[in-house]
Amino acid sequence: MRRRTAWLIFIVAVIATTVLVYPYLGLDIDDSRLDVRDSLHYYVLVGHIGTAAVALVLGSLQFMPSVRARRRVHRALGRVYLLAGVLPSAVATIPVALWSGRLMTQIGLTTAAVLWLISGGLAYRAARRRDFDSHRNWMMRNYALTFLAVTARVIVPLLLLVQIPFRGADPGSMGELATSMIPIGQTLGWVVNLVVVETIIRRRQRLPEARRMELLS
User: What are the tens digits of pLDDT across the range 78-126?
Assistant: First the structure.
C-alpha cells in the first residue's frame, strides 16, 4: 500500500475514533448516542466502542510501510490489535446487536462480528505458519470489517441524500428515516468494505511479483 494511502487511512481512523468515543468519555448513560435499555447495555456498548477504537487506530498503523519494516513493532501492534481490539469488541458486538431490537441490525452486526473473529483467527494462524501473503490478505479483510465503523457513517447520510427528492427535507421525517437507515448502513458498510478489499487482493495476486512488492513498499 502506498504511503499516502496509509496516512489517509490513519487520519480518517483517528478522526472517526475521536467522534465515536467522545460522547462516552464521561460514562454518562444520558449522553449515549444509541438507545440503551439499562446500565448493563450501556457499559457493554462502551466496552464495544472503546475496544473498537483501539482496533481502528492500531489497525491503520499496520498499513504504514515504516511500521511493517520494524518487525517487532509490527508483531506487537498486531497482537494488541487482535487481543485488545478485535476480540473484545467483536464479542461485545453480539449482545449489543441482539439488544437493538432491529432484525437487520441483529443479523448484520452479528454476522460481521463472527467474520471479524474468524478473519482475525485465520490471520494469526497464517502468521504463525509464516505464510505472510495469506496473513496480509486476512488482515486486510479483518480491517475491512473494523473499518465498518467509518463506512457505515458515510453510507447512512448518502442513503438519506438519495431519498430527499422523493420525501422532502422535513427535519422530523428525516430524523425517523435516518434511524431506519442505520441498520442498512451498518450492513452495507462491511459488505462494501469486503468487496473492495477482495477486489484489491485479487488484483494484486494477478500482478507480477516485482510489481506486487513495489505496491507493498
Answer: 999 999 999 999 999 999 999 988 899 999 999 999 999 999 999 999 9
Q: How far apart are CA 50 and CA 84, in angstroms?
A: 10
Quick: pLDDT tens for 124-153.
999 999 999 999 999 999 999 999 999 998
Nearest of 121, 125, 110, 119 to residue 141 by alpha carbon: 119
Q: Distances from the Cα of 217 to the Cαs of 63, 68, 69, 70, 111, in angstroms? A: 10, 9, 9, 13, 33
The one-letter amino acid code at 86 reads: V
Can you tell me which residue has the cell 486486510? 140
Contact between residue 90 and residue 116 where contact means Cβ atoms under 8 Å apart: yes
- Rounded-to-integer distance, Cα 202 and Cα 206, Å: 7
CA 106 to chain centre: 17
- Nearest in space to 174 (alpha carbons), one of 150, 156, 189, 186: 156
Supply the pTM of this predicted model: 0.88
Q: Are 44 and 95 in contact (CB under 8 A)?
A: yes
Q: How far is CA 147 from the centre of its chain?
A: 3
